[in-house]
Here is the input.
Amino acid sequence: MNEQTVLTLPVVCTRGMIVFPENKLTLDVGRPVSLKALELSTREHDNNIIFVSQINPLVDNPSFDDVYHIGTICKIDRKVRRDSSGTIKLTVIGAKRIKLENFIEKEGAIYSTVTVLEDEFGDRNEEIALVRKTTSYFEQAKRSMPNMPLDSINRLTSGVSASVLADTIGQYLPIDFKQKQQILETVNVNERLLLVASSIESEKVIGEIEETINRKVRESIDENQREYYLREKLKAIKEELGDTVPKEDDAESIREELENNPYPQYVREKIEEELRRFETMPAASSEANVVRTYIDWMLKVPWYQETKDVENIQKVEDVLNTDHYGLEKVKERIVEHLAVK
Here is the structure.
């Protein structure tokens, strides 16, 4: 094939999946128009077919304006009917980049007249440098591509052309399909390698950030588990020494304090509500400790206690100056407030 090769073949529109040249992809095909395209491809076109990605994967019946205009000629490798609904599990092998010129409805399928796009090459030294950089990045980042088949990894490590290197890594990089489409649309090999290398580097940085976050989460969990273990151990020691108060007795002592002191009714109701929550929780849970601390705080706030006001302003000033260094404006405001009272 040369750059001006023009073909007319049936088309399958994919939802967010892209087939790169020299690469294999397995996907499910279920739309009637796509199933018809497969049938015509096998019957009339020696299993050759066009794969192109939709711009919006949610569109059910895409028109020419709903798809990207750069796609791939593929060869059907295997078809397996999945169920009675007619869905087919399809494996295809990418062959060449193509540019779609139109959509033509024919025999219940979509056809397109396409122009085959050949690779464009730039500076040879730049290409060698980019291949080395991309290969180096790939060696560091291939763990982040769990879907890449072993035979593809072996093929890359044993040596392939710059074009195949870029397309194979682009096929399996864990990036969104818009970035993949950009790589597919880049005919110049050096520019394509640069895009792939940049994407690998970005994924590497993201992976390092995720690993840092995961490590911090693990450390936090480990610290929490350590704290829980030590608290449980301390609790067991105290129980052995007879220093702990059973939860039931603890709740009863709170009720006695509520009963024997003139707390306001709204405060009493809130404490009783929290106390009921406390009694339903496991004694060792962190939430129970939080609720118990809150109840203690509620009990200790001076809801009903009163003290005699000091009306000697000079004495107030002396106490403020003795106990608090600086804060002149604050102390002045306090004295003014008491003087007005």
In short: The chain has a mean pLDDT of 84. The CA atoms of residues 167 and 326 lie 71 Å apart. Residues 189-241 form the longest helix (53 residues). The two ends are 98 Å apart (CA to CA).
